[in-house]
Specification:
The chain is built from 19 helices and 11 strands. The protein has 423 residues and is of the alpha/beta class. It starts with 6 loop residues before the first helix and ends with a helix.
């Protein structure tokens, strides 16, 4: 290596062209032979003018490699650019060559299935050398081959894939015929679970492969769409201080299932897994224990909209609590027959601003009375984004007292080393 100054460019920076070309071309010829035999033995396929090796097989491989195409020239297969220029095998990328090799292996497996036996294809980390887009294309390629089989024949076939790839998990989660299992280091048994709604809801997070690497986004499991909009706004308004990836559960029961599912999957994928989950208070004050790496919080108010009457949110609306009470009284005088008048009256007369009661019906009305046209979710999200560690006050009607100190210290405004020294 020291004596040959061209060693790096000649060896390490190019694919092993001869081996690659020989192996892939041989497999493709095997696939072609098997396909033509099946065409010959199956009249319903043979008499279908749309069926031939090029459209049925080569085009599928070409769908994996967007920048080049494979064509037949006599008994050989060649690579061409999209403009038709011939490309030598050692000029294509390692990812493209890996995709072609994998596709040929997979096609050969499907062309030689024996439905009188159980057929098993083992793929060990097929995502290696493939960027996320190629990984997704490979999964769709596999699913397409499985879905081409009749249901009876499909029961005789299984593809088992070992992977650390979060994009691969995400794309498989879109298929109803996939199962996902996780393995811990000390486990000898892997249990597979059919893709369900929990996996589909969490899948976008796992399709975000650098979420725990570069941006430090952490999965945040939320009970409803209202919570999702609030935390999306908080994240946008915080200038990247609040790094969360909201995942919607839609109900408390589903949220519990997602917490348990994510405990298993996060641990299997990441070295230092972490996720958050926030539930409504719903009149309950007990704290929630974590489930593995899933740190769980309960709001210290009935629901997230109750935070609208916190001092910080009211300040963003341009008034104090006393000033809001005056505005609300004036509104009640003019709208005494309004369907929500009684609830508004209860709010301004209560000692705790109805902290632990449902105020969903009047959440946007509160904004309107205060003279704001902003959606209530935006106001709360922006107020959360303005919280800083040095300003946390857990008393009275400060926003922190509605959210909870632990939640704020963990997700919104973690204490800095300076804060710790000062305290």
């Amino acid at each position: 290596m020291e004596r040959n100054v061209t060693w790096l460019s000649q060896v390490r920076r190019k694919n092993q062209a001869d081996n690659f070309k020989a192996a892939s071309a041989h497999l493709l010829r095997e696939v072609e032979t098997a396909y033509l035999r099946r065409l010959q033995d199956t009249p319903e396929i043979r008499f279908d003018p749309s069926k031939d090796f090029r459209t049925d097989r080569l085009e599928r491989i070409n769908s994996l490699i967007p920048n080049i195409i494979i064509e037949q020239e006599g008994s050989n297969f060649v690579f061409r650019s999209l403009s038709g220029e011939l490309i030598a095998p050692d000029q294509i990328s390692s990812g493209e060559s890996e995709s072609v090799s994998l596709a040929a292996e997979i096609m050969y497996f499907f062309e030689t299935l024996d439905f009188n036996k159980f057929n098993l294809l083992l793929l060990d980390e097929p995502d290696v050398h493939l960027h996320p887009d190629l990984q997704a294309r490979l999964v769709y390629f596999l699913i397409q081959h499985l879905e081409d089989l009749s249901e009876d024949n499909r029961n005789s076939v299984a593809i088992l894939i070992a992977t650390h790839s979060t994009p691969l998990v995400s794309v498989f989660a879109s298929s109803d015929i996939a199962r996902i299992g996780t393995k811990k280091f000390e486990d000898d048994l892997v249990q597979f679970k059919l893709v369900d709604e929990n996996i589909k809801k969490a899948a976008p997070f796992f399709g975000h492969p650098l979420s725990l690497t570069l941006s430090n986004d952490v999965m945040l499991i939320l009970e409803g769409e209202d919570d999702e909009r609030v935390w999306q706004q908080a994240s946008r308004s915080s200038n990247c201080r609040i790094n969360v990836f909201p995942v919607l559960a839609q109900s408390v029961d589903v949220q519990g299932d997602m917490e348990r599912f994510c405990e298993t999957l996060l641990t299997a994928i990441y070295d230092h897994p972490i996720a958050y989950s926030i539930r409504d208070g719903d009149g309950v004050i007990e704290e929630l224990e974590p489930i593995g790496p899933v740190i769980r919080f309960r709001l210290r108010c009935y629901a997230i909209e109750n935070a609208l009457v916190s001092d910080e949110c009211l300040a963003l609306l341009g008034c104090t609590w006393a000033e809001f009470q005056q505005l609300a009284n004036a509104w009640l005088t003019q709208n005494s027959e309004h369907r929500d008048a009684e609830l508004m009256r209860q709010l301004i007369q209560s000692d705790d601003r109805l902290r632990h009661q449902k105020i969903k019906k009047i959440r946007q009305l509160i904004c309107g009375i205060a003279g704001s046209n902003k959606p209530w979710e935006v106001l709360i999200g922006q107020s959360i984004a303005q919280l800083r560690a040095e300003h946390i006050v857990d008393e009275g009607f400060h926003l922190v007292s509605f959210l909870g100190v632990e939640l704020v210290n963990t997700i919104v405004a973690p204490p800095t080393d300076t804060d710790s020294d000062t305290n």
